[in-house]
Structure formats: structure tokens, C-alpha cells
Design goal:
The chain folds into 3 domains: 192 residues, B-lactam Antibiotic, Isopenicillin N Synthase, Chain (Jelly Rolls); 205 residues, Vaccinia Virus protein VP39 (Rossmann fold, 3-Layer(aba) Sandwich), CATH 3.40.50.150; 113 residues, no CATH class. The protein is built from 12 helices and 29 strands.
Amino acid sequence: MNLRGKPYKFLNIGCSSIQADCLNKIISFDDLIWLKHVNNNDYSGNWSVVALTCPAEHRDAHPILQSFAIESTDKWIDLPILSELPEIQSLLTAIKCPLKSVRLMKLAPQSEVKAHRDHGISLDNHQARLHVALSTNDDVQFMVGGLRVPSVKGELYYVDVDQLHSVRNESDEDWIHLVIDCEVNDWLLEQLGMEPLSVEQSSAVKTLNMDEAVAELRSTADDILDYNYEDLYQNKATVDRLSQALQQLTAIKPYPEIHSGEDETITRSGRAISMLSAARCADDYMRTQVFLQGVYRAIMDKSESVRHKLSILYVGTGPYGLLITPLLHRLPDCDITMVDIHQESVECLNNLLQYLGNPSQVKQVTCSDIFQWQPENSRQYDIIISETMLAMLKHEPQVEIFRYVYPWLKQDGLLIPESIDIGLRLENAMDGKADEKIDLGWIARLNLSSLSEKVSDKSDFFSGQVSVPGNGEQYLKGLTRIQVYEDCWLEENQSGLTLPATLARLDTNKTNQISYRYESAELPDFCFDFID
């Protein structure tokens, strides 16, 4: 459907503005804590962000997640800092459409945001981005679709960021914009001089009946499998549809209006996240796509290399069985066993499988702590799947689950993900320039090779030392990358699982070595010692 009555690349919509005497008050506000933008490949120089709203599930999270969380959500909340900026609150009140992400963005002098598209943030997708320039001048080139956006301080502009756009700050001043993502409604279309939504258009995200939801789940999975890996980044809208179909089929609301304590479980070797937290993982759109592609290719490749019916064990399914259930209509005949620790997740999963016609491939869905479960008759599996992790293998039981289930894997079996790599990096603590990064190397790799060495060894799974080059004040960053299967990788910043973690601030002129070890316990984590 096409909502665009006029092909605007940008437009001053004039419904509200911030007065000149208020602009300096905002940009000089002392409590603003600017975070370096995580998309390092998209800019040169210094580009930073202050989040004013965030997804509800990240209300108590680290500011990096609040600022850069990439999963889709329908529930956004104001962060406390917004209450200290009444001029911005007043402008937001004048915008009569549902607001999502609201943030301040700053591009330093002699810096550039490279040409890119924010796929899916478009009128056709019922989303829009609004800009208010707080600090700018004529030496800043803000280009959209080959046209230059005027540098008018305080005025509210619609900008079509689904088109190719870039910013080059050739001035000696910071370029600071208030950036607002919102949902398209009749009010916004009126400001743009466009026709209101029809009944059909206003129900673009409609409630499906169960047969329609099943068809939607299968068609979106087909779309994901058919995409080239290089194009997955622009496929967020498809993952949103897949997630909505799963919510419809399970009656789960991943982002409840009332936020309460969730029923996570602490196992002997890590935290098993709650049912709702597991459901929200579907909205991490690159994670969902890369895992679905990798799992599907692994199963199809393995089925072609053996003469027997494949046996698959899936540990930590959550309520959706996300890495398997969307694929069932395309999978060959096989025997799949699913295990999850939470009864409510198992009940949701069983209901979902009923709507899918109780696929013949699924032989067993069991509620159990995997560390207290054993396969029948000492059975071994061709493929074992488990994605039970956070970045840096922190707190969740991925390592010990793999160590525990490894003996059940056939000699030529596949473990999914195939490899999880952990690395360290130093970054300049003063200005964070990209060219000031010093990689210290990959310090840990969880794969079949490391498991074969550690399956009966109860010592620390990973340990060692790295040398530190003297280069002044540096942040120590922890890196994570995931090889789901063959060339299906989740790289840095593509997912919540691969966001760099700030581990410490070091004076590298005094610290010569870093000693590390991975401790498996109720809350597993890497521990570091800094040696002079």
C-alpha cells in the first residue's frame, strides 16, 4: 500500500517549535551523558546519543541498551532525564501521534554520518522520523535523497530516512538534533498535507485469526530464508510480522502495560530467563534471521549427508520454539525433542504446535531443568541447538549447557551455534575515536573443539593472559561474535548478543597484562585481574 500523497523527502510541518532562548538551555544542560554511537562503520569522527525514551523492558538497563536497543517494541517509556527538559516535553506534547524513540543526537565538528538508509522507517510502513535542529549552521550538509535539508533551528521537520541520507559537519560547532520516531496517524498526515488513512490502511497491523496467523508465520519465515545474508539488515518489518504472528498464536504480550517481576529461574549454572523475556528475543531482528537461516541450512545439509531420520535436541525453547517452529513446514521428516525449564513456556509452545497442526517432526516437548534431564535409552543426536546466552556469555547457562549435552551429540553431529567467540579491545577513553582502537585478540571460543577438551574437566572453562600496550587511558571492551552455522554470523553490534561491553577503564601505562578466567556458577561471568 502506498500512503504517500506527495513524494516528500523532508518538510517543515510547523505544528510546534522550540524558541531560540530555550535552545542554548537544552544543549548546555550539564546532566546530559552522551554515548558514542555503536554503529562504528556508519560514521567517521564522533557521533553520540542521549536517549530520552527507551523500550519499557529496558527501563532499568544499561544506558547503551536504552539508547541503541534494536528490537521492535510497542511500549516506550520516558527516561528520568526527560523530566529535566521541559522545553522538549512541551514540544512532544504538541505532537499528536504515538511516540517511540526520542533522543538527542550530536555530530562533532569535522565528523560525518555516512550515506545510509533506515529501512522500514517510512510512511508506507506507518512509521516516521521527525527532526528538530538545536545547534546547526550553514557549514553542515544534511542531505536526504540528494536534497539538502534547511538548517533552521528550533523548527520541527519530517525527514524520509528510508531514502539515502547523510550528514557532514564541516563547521567548528557541534551539530545537535532532537530526533523523534513516531507512528503515522491521521494527525501527522494532515500536517504533511496528505489524505487520512483509510480503514484498510489504519488496520495495517491487524488482529489475525488463527489460520491467518499460521499462514503469516510460515510466509514470513519463507521470506527470511529467501533473503541474501547481506540484505537481512533491511528486513526488520518481516521479523515484526513474524513476531506478531507468534504473539497472536500464543496469546503472549511480551511488553505488558504493568511491569512486574518476571519468573526467571536460577539454575546451578546460570539464569534461565522468563517466558516474557524469551518471547522478546524474537524482536531482535538480526538475531532471529541469522539463527533461522543457520538452523535451517544446518538441518537441510545434515539430512542430505545421512541415511537415517535426523534426531534433533533443542534446549531452552522459550514459549515460541523460535529457532524451529517457524521452519517446520519446510523441514524434512525428523525427530525433534524440545526442552524448557518453565512450565508456562512449555504450555504456550504446545498450544502453538497445535495451531500448526501438531507437526510430525516434533516428538517430545518436555518441561525440565536440562541439568536434571537425560535422553531416553542414552540416545544421541545429530544436531543439538541451544541459544541460552547474553553478550560475553554473561549470567546465562550457555557454556554449561553445551558441556552437559556434549556427550549426547553423535561423533559427526552439529552443535548450533557452531562457535561463540569472546574478545578484548582497548578504546581511547578520552575521545573514543575509531582509529584509536587496539584489538587484544579473541580470548575464548566455545565450540566442539573446546568442549571436547573440557567435557570432563571441571576447571575454569577459559583462562589466560593478554599483554597490554601502553597507550594512556583506555576503556577495556568485551566483544562477542557468533557463528550460527558456516557463513551465518552475528557480528559486532548486529544484535543484543553482540553489543560490546565496557569492562573497565585502565591506565595502560601502568597495567602491563590482563589475566582472565571464566567462572561457571549461578551467575557465570568473566573475571579480570589487572597486573602492573
